[in-house]
Amino acid sequence: MGVRTANVQDGNIGETLESLAATIHGRRESSPEKSYTARLLTDVEDELLKKIAEEASEVIMACKDKDHDHIRYEAGDLVYHLLVTLERYGVTLDELAGELNARMK
Ligand SMILES: N=c1c2ncn([C@@H]3O[C@H](COP(=O)(O)OP(=O)(O)OP(=O)(O)O)[C@@H](O)[C@H]3O)c2ncn1[C@@H]1O[C@H](COP(=O)(O)O)[C@@H](O)[C@H]1O
């Protein structure tokens, strides 16, 4: 585990998710030898699905430690892998927004 804190600045979550999702989408054209994302998009699906469980567990452990920087770091890993999962299975961010908006009371 290597939590990096240098150069981490607050950002706009909407813009960041859209930019990252676009990068991930673009990796469909990349070589799996050169891109981890391209590998996750093309490898056997269990490789990606296992990462979701692993990263979720790491978030849980960081929360148990009440370690703010570590929680942020592991949440970043989890959200990245979730975005790769959405890309792989064809669920767009707009659809996700629709799903969440529909629940708002
Ligand atoms: N945001 C990410 C991102 N977050 C996490 N990861 C990778 O996800 C993996 C996490 O797995 P692990 O938790 O096992 O790795 P780890 O962090 O070494 O292990 P721990 O410290 O968590 O124990 C690492 O290989 C990270 O590099 C990411 N890989 C890519 N991206 C984004 O995806 C873009 C495309 O990257 P390529 O995959 O290189 O094309 C990049 O420009 C980034 O914006």
Average pLDDT, all residues? 96
Structural class designation: mainly alpha
Gyration radius (Cα, Å) is: 15 Å
Which small-molecule ligands are present, each listed once?
A: phosphoribosyl ATP
- Helix segment tally: 5
**Strand percent estimate:** under 5%
Fraction of residues in H or I helices: 55-70%
- Overall CATH class: Mainly Alpha
Task: Report the CATH architecture.
Answer: Orthogonal Bundle
Succession of helices and strands: HHHHH
The gross shape turns out to be globular
Q: What's the story with the biggest beta sheet?
A: none
Per the CATH scheme, the topology name is Helix Hairpins
Family: Belongs to the PRA-PH family.
Catalytic activity: 1-(5-phospho-beta-D-ribosyl)-ATP + H2O = 1-(5-phospho-beta-D-ribosyl)-5'-AMP + diphosphate + H(+)
Pathway: Amino-acid biosynthesis; L-histidine biosynthesis; L-histidine from 5-phospho-alpha-D-ribose 1-diphosphate: step 2/9
Subcellular location: Cytoplasm
